[in-house]
């Protein structure tokens, strides 16, 4: 009976560590919820990337992932004034790999526009607001409703477990059957 109590205690500890780790681990979030949403909008009736962004809670440590055609598009991070004017002349960072991943390392707004001529002016841009660690759950983003359109799914973002937390998850999965056998 001591062994079974020890096994159950270990199992509970593993599960608690796993839950804690999942809540602290940054997520990898596919921009728009699916591939190829980073493009010039086809019509003004499609849901905007900023609408998708308003519905998604971004936390420090999350990473945004863009999947797009690198032959005719790019992503550049800009300051607010450049976002509003679609000015590509002074980017903070630029990416043209078709599989761009950017970690959100601080709270506050992040501004992204297409680096290709005329794309931002035709609506290819994104504002993401990262919640502060102290922020309450009633937060609403202040992203402007502008004609920034892209096809979006309501499926949301993908989550992944990595590093030490995948080891904790594996240990928990191995201990669950063991705990059942010993009880």
CATH class of the domain at 24-131: Mainly Beta
Strands, count: 8
What is the general shape? elongated
Mean pLDDT: 75
Structural class: alpha/beta
Order of helices and strands: HEHEEEHEEEEH
With helices defined by DSSP (H or I, 4 residues minimum), what is the helix count? 4
Account of the 3D structure:
This protein is an alpha/beta fold and 183 residues long. The chain has 4 helices and 8 strands. The radius of gyration is 21 Å and the shape is elongated. It starts with a helix and ends with a helix. This is Early nodulin-like protein 1. It is a lipid-anchor; GPI-anchor. Residues 1-26 form the signal peptide. Keywords: Cell membrane, Disulfide bond, Glycoprotein, GPI-anchor, Lipoprotein, Membrane, Signal.
What's a concise summary of this model?
This protein is of the alpha/beta class and 183 residues long. 30% of the residues lie in helices and 20% in strands. Its main location: membrane.
Give descriptors for this structure.
183 residues, five-stranded mixed beta sheet, three-stranded mixed beta sheet, 4 helices, alpha/beta, Immunoglobulin-like
């Amino acid at each position: 009976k001591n062994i079974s109590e020890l096994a159950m205690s270990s199992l509970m500890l593993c599960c608690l560590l796993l839950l804690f780790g999942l809540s602290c681990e940054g997520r990898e979030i596919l921009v728009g919820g699916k591939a190829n949403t980073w493009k010039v909008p086809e019509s003004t009736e499609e849901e905007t990337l900023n609408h998708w962004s308003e519905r998604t809670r971004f936390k420090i440590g999350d990473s945004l992932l863009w999947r797009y055609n690198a032959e005719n598009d790019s992503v550049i991070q800009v300051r607010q004034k450049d976002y509003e004017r679609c000015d590509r002349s002074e980017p903070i960072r630029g990416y043209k790999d078709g599989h761009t991943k950017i970690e959100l390392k601080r709270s506050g707004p992040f501004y992204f526009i297409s680096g290709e001529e005329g794309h931002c002016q035709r609506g290819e841009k994104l504002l993401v607001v990262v919640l502060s660690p102290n922020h309450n759950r009633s937060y609403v983003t202040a992203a402007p409703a502008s004609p920034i359109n892209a096809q979006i799914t309501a499926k949301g973002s993908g989550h992944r477990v990595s590093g030490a937390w995948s080891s904790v998850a594996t240990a928990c999965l191995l201990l669950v059957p063991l705990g059942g056998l010993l009880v």
